Amino acid sequence: MTAFPSGLALAQFKSELDRLEVVSRFPEMPNNLFDEGPHLVTTPTLPWGDEIRELSVEAYRRFIHGETWITGSGARQMEADIIGWMGKLMGAETPTGFITAGGSESNMCAILTAKQLSGRRSGSVVFPGNGHYSLPKLCRMFDLDAIIVPAPEGHLDRVDPAAIEAAIRPDTIAIIATAGTWAFGSVDPIAAIGEIAQRRGIYLHIDGAFGGYILPFLERSGYDRDIPVWDFRVPGVQSISADLHKNGMAPPPAGSLTFRNEALLAAAKLICPPNGTMSGTRGVGPIAGAWAMVKLLGESGYTAVSHASMAMRDELVAGVLSIPGLQVYPGSRINMTLIHSESLDLRPVAEELRRRGWMFAARTVPAPVGMVFVPMPHNHGKIQSLLTHLKEAMKLAGPLDAAKEADVKVSAYGF
Questions:
Q1: Which of 108, 187, 327, 412 is the most exposed place for a label (fewest CB within 10 A)?
Q2: CATH class held by domain 57-297
């Protein structure tokens, strides 16, 4: 066929598809240090990377026409496999739950479950100031007051459990804590917060979007035996979100919400029938892609991936600390690094790095800008090049000038 019903020729179509792929910067993925998707590549430490990635994409393709209604039987089995396996690694005896479109939907479903269990039409939710942007959003959507507890002075990555308890009101239906905070990579003091939640009879949800698919493997392998307990081993924890399309390496969109037991899932289904998810019709391609990744990697594979990502993070941190004027924000337990300066304006540095093709996230805290890098397997061999460009770009950094802070904006995700 030389032309399609629309009149578009095959060559034109392919040319436009190529153009859009380039615009999306897919060919530049090795320079992308903050994105989601199947990040596996074959490297000396991960010799099976490309093959597993392609098999995950193949599973996605084979199930791309399905949904969780009539043709969903296989996908529902895949979903149960993922939740059961990962839930037990996170300390639940009888885990249950479902695959979502990502951390935002997982957090929403968890808090809707808490609201259902509370019997309240409105109320409040308490969470630290380091919480994800989806938390204030879901509160606005669900007629809940967001009670945001500020970090201790000078320690943006930390949370004071006493301040969390002091913020609880009679109408508080849930507390949310984070394992792998954006953008510090820290783990909230979940054991202490769990004790508060259990004693006060309040639902506790853990946002493990970034940390969920790396923390268990770092701890179980002995890479970091000092990771604070954050999962279902804390009795007060009722649910955990963990994104497969982040450190789980799966094609997006694929998050997960795991409940401690079947009773909690039943409550989720009451408020969000029939599955507990926000959406009724769910495409099962992402579920199949995630299932393939979980089945093929297993604990040993995820451990190798986690170690590879952390090695790049450590390489990046060491290099950054050798550059005068730069600091790395403390507290990270995962493959996330926040680079900032207490004496220099890094906004022109960030823009120069982006001009040179590097992709990362930026934030205005600590002011005026911090740069967030999340090394993953597809960044293999790129850290030294990034450090070279960062050192060169630092020539553009000027002294902090509070009067100009409102004049120059740095986009959060490079849009």
A1: 412
A2: alpha beta
Answer for the pair 261, 94: CB distance below 8 angstroms, yes or no: yes
Structure confidence by residue, pLDDT tens digits, 248-271 = 999 999 999 999 999 999 999 999
Ordered by start, the domain boundaries in the chain are 57-297, 307-397
The pTM of this model reads 0.96
* Cα separation, 194 vs 108, whole angstroms: 20
Total residues found in the chain within this entry: 415
CA distances from 55 to 59, 269, 386 (A): 6, 32, 30
* 370-373: strand order across its sheet: 327-328, 337-340, 370-373, 361-363
C-alpha closest to that of 249 among 88, 32, 52 = 52
Question: How far lies 299's CA from each of 120, 294, 308, in Å?
Answer: 40, 8, 14
- Biggest CA-to-CA distance, the chain: 70
**Cβ–Cβ contacts within 10 Å for residue 326, how many?**
22
| Residue 300, number of CB atoms within 10 A of its CB | 10
- Torsion-angle region of 377 (φ positive above 0: left; ψ -120 to 50: alpha; else: beta): alpha
CATH of domain 307-397: 3.90.1150.10
How many Cα atoms within 13 Å fall on the side-chain side of residue 368?
23
145-192, pLDDT tens digit by residue? Answer: 999 999 999 899 999 999 999 999 999 999 999 999 999 999 999 999
C-alpha to C-alpha distance for 155 and 339, rounded to whole angstroms? 15
Select from 132, 248, 117, 143 the least CA-distant residue to 182.
132
Alpha-carbon distance of 384 to 401, in angstroms, equals 30
